[in-house]
């Protein structure tokens, strides 16, 4: 068993399954650094990542990171709970992105490794951290199974009413992280019924728009490039950077909620989750990011950020299932699985 404390220097952990699939993790941001598939044509790393820990600590695009307390955006860095107004740190103009200036992706997490195919990261966030109320205890477990699934389990509790919205920010390129082929050449299917239009700063307008007859309809698999930048919603964001509300029947953690196919058709990634929504992000702002084997540029990778809808704390009209509000002294769990078929 390997144990580190939050105050230690960053550590790397490698998980390997019986077929030779390998994932690499780090205590810096409880981040997923590599995902190496043992293909018949050779090993292929399908997750974007930094070449070393020092570079990982300098990058600002959340490569593989666990983000929180609240993933995505909180408008104007402000929200109200129980008639009390809270101000949280703003790190995207006036808005709070992924938990604020010193969010969880920049923290050193403690880790235990109960076996060669699992690592459990833990973090404690103090009352008032980044302006959020209450003390928060978080546990994030990565497990690599022998059927080539990466299972990420989240568990948390708070001692005061607080929004909590945890996700992983891995970027995938099934052609290989160093490939010249972009995510636009992948085929994608998402069982999403609505998408959330945003303003030019990525803040939801409040509308849930039915995907029918829009470029956000991925219910039938299609090449990502087919409808890319073909509407004003995408042009404002430089591509897809929008939340899709998932079909309720697929958020049982077992049904496939989204599926990505490599350009050559030799690798498929199925995603299963218990979360009600997913941020689809085509890496529009990957600008000169130092990667493992190349410099990443826009559309080098795609993120499937399973989560509650962004800015939900400011939209109680959306309803409790999508609010992401955690109540004191209850244990909350969620899970997202990525299965690689090759």
TrEMBL record:
Indicate yes or no for the key word Isomerase: yes
According to its UniProt record, which residues of this chain constitute the active site?
Answer: 169, 305
Keywords for the protein's UniProt record, in alphabetical order: Carbohydrate metabolism, Isomerase
Report the superkingdom from the record. Answer: Bacteria
Enzyme superclass (EC): isomerase
State a GO cellular component annotated for this protein. cytoplasm
Instruction: Tell me the pathway.
Output: Carbohydrate metabolism; hexose metabolism
Q: Which GO terms describe its molecular function?
A: aldose 1-epimerase activity; carbohydrate binding
**Gene3D superfamilies referenced in this protein's UniProt entry, alphabetically:** 2.70.98.10
Q: What is its EC number?
A: 5.1.3.3
Kindly give the InterPro entries that the UniProt entry links to this protein: Ald1_epimerase_CS, Ald_epimerase_bac, Aldose_1-epimerase, Aldose_1/G6P_1-epimerase, Gal_mutarotase_sf_dom, Galactose_mutarotase-like, GH-type_carb-bd
> Where, in this chain's numbering, is beta-D-galactose bound?
72-73, 169-171, 241
Which reactions appear under catalytic activity for this entry?
alpha-D-glucose = beta-D-glucose
Set out the biological process GO terms recorded for this chain's protein: galactose catabolic process via UDP-galactose, Leloir pathway; glucose metabolic process
Q: Which family does it belong to?
A: Belongs to the aldose epimerase family.
Name under which the protein is recorded:
Aldose 1-epimerase
């Amino acid at each position: 068993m390997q144990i580190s404390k939050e105050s230690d220097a960053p550590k790397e952990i490698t998980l390997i399954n019986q077929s030779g699939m390998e994932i690499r993790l780090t205590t810096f941001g409880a981040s997923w650094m590599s995902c190496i598939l043992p293909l018949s044509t050779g090993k292929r790393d399908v997750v974007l990542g930094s070449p070393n820990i020092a570079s990982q600590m300098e990058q600002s695009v959340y490569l593989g990171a666990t983000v929180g307390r609240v993933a995505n955006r909180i408008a104007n860095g402000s929200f109200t709970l129980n008639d009390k107004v809270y101000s949280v740190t703003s790190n995207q103009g006036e808005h709070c992105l992924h938990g604020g200036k010193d969010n969880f992706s920049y923290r050193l997490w403690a880790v235990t490794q109960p076996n060669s195919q699992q690592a459990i990261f833990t973090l404690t966030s103090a009352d008032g951290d980044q302006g959020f109320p209450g003390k928060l205890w978080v546990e994030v477990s990565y497990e690599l199974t022998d059927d080539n699934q990466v299972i990420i389990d989240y568990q948390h509790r708070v001692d005061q009413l607080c929004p909590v919205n945890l996700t992983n920010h891995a970027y995938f390129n099934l052609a290989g992280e160093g490939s010249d082929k972009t995510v636009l050449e992948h085929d994608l299917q998402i069982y999403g019924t609505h998408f959330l239009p945003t303003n030019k700063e990525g803040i939801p307008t409040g509308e849930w728009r039915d995907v029918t007859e829009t470029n956000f309809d991925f219910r039938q698999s299609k090449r990502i490039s087919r409808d890319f930048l073909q509407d004003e919603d995408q042009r404002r964001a430089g591509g897809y950077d929008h939340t899709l509300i998932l079909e309720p029947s697929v958020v049982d953690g077992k049904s496939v909620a989204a599926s990505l196919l490599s350009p050559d058709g030799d690798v498929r990634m199925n995603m299963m989750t218990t979360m009600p929504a997913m941020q689809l992000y085509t890496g529009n702002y990957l600008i000169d990011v130092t990667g493992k084997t190349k410099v990443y540029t826009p559309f080098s990778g795609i993120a499937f950020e399973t989560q509650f809808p962004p800015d939900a704390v400011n939209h109680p009209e959306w309803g409790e299932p999508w609010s992401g509000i955690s109540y004191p002294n209850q244990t909350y769990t969620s899970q997202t699985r990525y299965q690689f078929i090759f």
